[in-house]
Amino acid sequence: MRKDAAKKIRRHNVVAVLFDGVSPFEFAVACEVFGIDRSVDIGAPWYRFKVCAAGPTPITTGIGFTIDTPHGLEALRRADTIIVPAGKGEDNEPLLEALRQAHRRGARIMSVCTGAFILAAAGLLDGRRATTHWMHAAELARRYPLVKVDPDVLYVDDGDILTSAGTAAGIDLCLYVVRLDFGAEAANIVARRMVVPPHRDGGQAQFVSQPISNLPTCDPFTETLAWAIEHLDADLSVNELATRSAMSPRTFARRFGETHGTTPHQWLLRQRVLLAQRLLETTDLAVDLVATQCGMGSAANLRQHFQRIVRNTPQGYRRCFQQGCGQPERPSEGFAVEAVDA
User: 24 and 168: one domain?
Assistant: First the structure.
């Protein structure tokens, strides 16, 4: 993006909310992802980030230390995105009303872990699909029966409301939002700085169903998947991946599903779409060449899977980033971010 064009783009305002009992880790994730200026790294204006308090300061965290900020709930009035960390803020009526008002004017609101309880208490999750930490999912469903609680996914994108499971899933959701706003390369840059994976599908299971005692002491798929990512343009098969992992195809598929919460086929498909996104953002390659380089075979095949997963056409996705609008076209109705079998 040209520097003179970047100067004309209004910076996106992100505000994280503090309240007594807030979880420090989930709050710190928002600060790390959105609060550190990455403008030089990505060549575009980064978010404008603030922290506001939903009550008298300093705010006492859930483990006892305090955090101070000069901003109160009035900061939410101009926020484009609001982040509600984990913690006990359901009885904070000023906070709930501020969230309702922000939602009515069109702000994007996202919660991490038990922050979903605060959104539910504000009525923002009624009739919507949402998630939270698996340990608290049943309680969320019991207390707020109008919420369509999905306990099995890492995060859910329901358009202007996004929710995530606990702890590391908050990182996944924040990087997902960066990807929506700035593209795959920007999300990769932030992930590399944080030394975390740049993307995990929202539909990946929150935890491994097989008991840990029965799992190998190291991830048996690390080398195989790293090799596969370097060879996405090849005709990869489950049999070949299984052979590289020294397993039978049946054992490989079963163990892969237990570890990654999806099938090898869907994992490959998602990696190919991610590569296609990056190529569309950073090169002028024709769509058929993009399809070849990411292993989709044909432009028609790429369009089919790209539109299903990204909710946009390859050309529409590229056009959006070339024009500097940041966020690709979104569906008119909310959707859960999850792996779906083709």
Answer: yes
Q: What is the pLDDT of residue 277?
A: 85
Q: What is the pLDDT of residues 274-294, one digit of tens each?
A: 889 888 888 889 999 999 999
Sheet containing 13-18: which strands, arranged edge to edge?
Answer: 48-53, 13-18, 81-84, 108-112, 161-164, 155-157
Q: Which of 308, 315, 305 is nearest to 279 (CA)?
A: 315
Whether residue 249 is found in the same domain as residue 273: no
Q: Is residue 206 part of a domain?
A: no
Distance CA 76, CA 261 (A): 36
CA distance 84 to 74: 15
Number of independent structural domains in the chain: 3
Task: Identify whether residues 250 and 124 lie together within a single domain.
Answer: no
- Residue carrying the six token digits 């590289």: 244
Provide the token pair at 60. 């006492």
- Same structural domain, 134 and 238: no
Structural domain of 233: 212-260
Q: What is the pLDDT of residue 213?
A: 30
